[in-house]
Each structure stands twice: as structure tokens, then as C-alpha cells.
UniProtKB/TrEMBL annotation:
It is an enzyme of class 2 (transferase). This is Cardiolipin synthase. It comes from the Bacteria. It comes from Rhizobium daejeonense. GO terms for molecular function: cardiolipin synthase activity.
Amino acid sequence: MTGIFATYWAEILAILSLVMGTLAAVHATMTKRDVRSAIGWVGIIVLSPLIGALIYAVAGINRVRRKSLISRRSRRFEELWKRLSEYGVPREVVADKFGSRMAALKSLGDTVGHHALLSGNRIDILHTGSETYAAICAAIDAAERSVILETYIFDRDPAGKRVADCLAAAARRGVEVRVLVDAVGARYSVPSIIGYLKDRGVPVASFNGKVIVGMRLPYANLRTHRKIVVIDGKVAFMGGMNIRAAFEGEHAARDTHFRVTGPVVADIFAVAAEDLNFETGEVLTGRAWQVAVDDGVQGGPAFARAIVSGPDSNIETNHKILMGAFSTAEKSIRIMSPYFLPDNILLAALFTAARRGVVVEIVVPSQNNLAIVSHAMTSQFAQILKEGCRIYNAQGPFDHSKLLTVDGQWAFVGSSNLDSRSLRLNFEIDMEVFDRDFAAAIDKRIDAALYHAEMLSFDALQARPFAVRLLNRVFWLGSPYL
């Protein structure tokens, strides 16, 4: 056998390249939803059939098919949905309180989302890592029945160990605890937190670990980017904050997280429970995992909906909601994002809004933790400014917050960045909130970032050396995969 390969290795390699390249090109053509993505992958495969096919096998194939699982979830939570329906918000109520355009946005959410807009919620803003981790630990310490935690990055550092020790203490006193950490995110610290949790008796699983087979691929696809903690079915934490010490201290990186109570907690819990079931097969039932729906006030503020996105039947839900929001805006669109690389469809919606007279403000960090992304973002800025939008570089430490408001009465917060990875490849969870007080609080957070921000100008961006602009455009070519 070795002799045959040594003699005919060139022919064998050619046949292997032809077969693998053909199969990969056909798969990309038949399965990709976006024509540019399909053309890009086919081009890579044609240029290098063997290597291109291997790259496509690792990074291009969506291996997650969860439609049947989500169907089973719908049946499993059928009784819960009935209870939640009492807190549903009719379109006419939204129209009366927020206007007909916001009522249309509410109807869009009803159509493309898998969860209802619910009344009677309270959402508290947590402004720092120290504040967030203290609140999460206090809630875990007070847990009586159950804790479920799902996150992208969970570092084995002082912040991570503090949360892990609280989880272990809860498990020792009889609380049902489940932890789900993304397989890539768990590898941001070595050794990972997973072994630390297992050694202390905490049931933990890694999400989609089979895809990477032990490799550390920081930009691997199909990750859970969700950050969820639910305690006793009553209190939830969600937002953009991972669990790592980099967000604690005077000069730490910044982020924004949220403490949530009310009926929407039930939907947040259902998302985490579904992800756990997908990875482990475990179904969370029994008294420990009951959700306290009746904690809300029917008809009371805030009106909130869980927006669930991912490369399954929820694909591009966040993208669709944002398109609707940008089209709905009459006065203002305010965006704060660490990774602002929207596709041309979202950019066109922003440009159209700006031409209609809507004030479009975009805040990005002046210091980004990912230099490649910073270069790619900057390559788009001149075009964005030319179309009438405003861009600000927030000074100070890196800010990881993902915040968005429209007309001072609608907000969109959670784990989604405005890039292709979050809008198409990651599993994300966000909330849309119809509430003027909450939108005002988010606007205040954005105003604080703007206070010392630098407003960018078209002329200054165009005056940069050609080599710098070319470098930015080269990185921009890879933006669908950053």
C-alpha cells in the first residue's frame, strides 16, 4: 500500500482534491443562504480544492440542526406558554402608549420571534464587572431550588473562581445547579474552569465541543455567545458580560449587564434549558426547575421580549428585528457596540434612516481588544459618515457593551454584536424593551460614553495615508468571519 502511494501519490492527490473540492463546492452552493457567502466559499474551494475543502469542513458547515429539538421544547413548555399568555401585550396597547410605528415593530417581533412581548417586568442595569459579579454571587448564595448558568467565556481567574465557588456551595447545600460553558470560550484560560467546577461537584458541560475536537480556535463558528444565569426561576441575569477578571477594577474593561425579574425570566430560562438539553440530553423538570411566572404585574412596565438568535430555526432573528427598528425610527437611533461590522443590508437601513432626518449615532471603543476588528471597522467609517451618520470613538478602557435605542422609547440589549458572527453564526440572546424609562437609562449610559468621546470626521479619515486605508480594507475583506 505504501509503495502504491509512493508511486502514484500525485494522481491520488489529484483525485482526492477533485472529489473533496466537488463535494464541498456543491454543499456550499446548495446550503448557503447568502449568495456572497456561497460565492466566497466556492471561490476558496476552486482555488485550492483540497485545502479549501478542509477549511470549509471546519469553518463553513453548520453542523447544528435543532428544529426537531425546538419543536419538542414547544410541547414541553406548552403549559408555561399558556401561563405567560396572561402577560401578553396586545398591539393596540403598544400603539396607544408608543405610537403606530412601534406597534408595527411589535408585530414584527410577533412574526419572526419565538417568544411573546410580555408585560410586568423589571430590568435593572449593572454598570461594571464588580457590580455584576457581586449581584450574581449574591443571587446564587440566596438560591433555594435551582441555578442554571450559560456563558461564552468563564475564565479560571479570581472572578471566575469566585462565581464557581458560589455555584459549588449552592450544590453542596442541595440546590440543583447546571453550568454550560462554550467549548471555545472555556479555552480562553488554561487550564479551563470546567475541571475546577467538576472537582467541586458542579454538573458542567461544554457547548458544541465535538466541533473543535480539543483545538483552541478563538473564532470557530457555531458558538453559544449567550450569557444567562437564572436562579429559582425568579431572577435572571443576561447581557454582554462574560465571567473574567478583566472586567473588575478601577482601570478594567467596561461592559453592561442586566438583572431581570418578571414573566420574561421564563423565556430566558427556557433558552438556557434548551441549550443544556441539546448538549447533554437532560430535561430540566420537577419542582426545582419551576418558573415563578406570577412574579410579574399584568399590564405593568416594562414590556419585554426575549430575542433568540442562532444558526438553527432562529437564524438572523436579531438581524430582522434590527432592520425593523431602523426602518421604524422617526427621531433617533443610538448604537453602542464593540464590534460594529454590519452587513450592507443593515448599513442601507441606517443610511436610509439618516436621509429621512433620523439622528444616527454610533459609539465604538477607541481601544479595541481585537486589532483586526478595529481595522476592519475603520474601513467602513468614511462611507458611514458620508451617508449622514455620526461616529464617536469612546475614550478610556475598552467597552464591551452592546446597547441600542430608538426614539427614546425602545431598547435592544443583550449579547449580540453588530457583526456577521453574532447575526448569523453565534447563538445569541437579547431583549427588546418597550419602555421610556428603560430607554432613557440606556441613553444615559451612552451619554456617559459620549462625554469624553472623539467625533470622527470624513475629511480626517480620508486624509490618512493610503497604506493605512489599504490595510484596513484588507482586514475588512475578512469581516464576515471576524
